[in-house]
Amino acid sequence: MSSISPPRSGWFGLGSMGLAMACNLQKHLTEQELPALHFANRNISKGDPLKALGGLPCQDIKELVEACDMIFISVTNDEVLTTVVESFVSTNSLRGKILVDTTTVHPNTTASLATVLASHDCSFVAAPVFGPPPTARAGQLLVAVAGPSQAIEILAPYLQGVIARAVIRVGEDPSKALLLKSTSNFISAGLMYLLSEAHVLAEKSGLPATLLESLIEANFGAYAANTSKRLTSGSYMPTAGQAPNSALELAIKDVSIGLGIAKEQGVKLEIGELSMGSMQEAKAFGDESGRKLDSHSVFGVVRKKAGLEFENEAVKERDGSREQKKA
Questions:
Q1: Residue 181 bears catalytic tag
Q2: Given Cys at both, which of 11, 94, 223, 301 links 122, Cβ 3.0 to 4.6 Å?
Q3: For the 3-hydroxyisobutyrate dehydrogenase-like NAD-binding domain, which residue ranges apply (predicted)?
């Protein structure tokens, strides 16, 4: 790959996060009159929205690797990521290329894959993203990047202002970006639980949720306010058949990574363990009721522990109005 000409970009993995980021990247490439984004996915039809924007579908990983100099990856977990990278390696065509992984995995997985790829003269950049699918669609994610500095310089123009509102440069060790992401997930899980308790206390004591939410926004900032709104709006428990903004199962996976790291270091994360237990209770509730729940559904568990129903008034009103329309 020439250090002067722009890289030919590719994308593998078109889940809700991957598709959103890939679409924003393709829009940017079109605006800048750069080569279109090549993409591949296990179910290639998921890339139809990307194709409509000018993206170029590839039938398999080999075709994707041959067509691109820099390839982004967005998959669900460590096992899938490892399998995908092994498929990339099996093409024997990675020399001089850059792989950019946006997946949240254990730092040890990242370190292992970086070593494997380096042995094939391929640069590996860890670029975990912070934010749910709506934030990804808006191009407002936060991204932490770590890896070879030369590769990051090539990658940088395709991050901030394209798929991200800001970029944190972590250094040259890819695993450190995942350690940062895992720590962030622990903070987010704790904040969800804390705000859930605050709203339950407010409801039980007669303090209006809108008043508490005004305080949260004014005193604790936009991130806390947005978390609060995902509780009070009822989005923590989507309508039956509707996909959540941020799947509870992925949150359980993400927090378990942080707890695993803590155990390895001999650290007890009591808030993390409390959050994990509540998320598992929420999953059991969702499985029993046949509903896919959002990562913020710990709110329902905290409500039940306080003698309230899992569903708040926003959920009841929304689901009730839907039933009336059906009738």
A1: yes
A2: 94
A3: 180-287
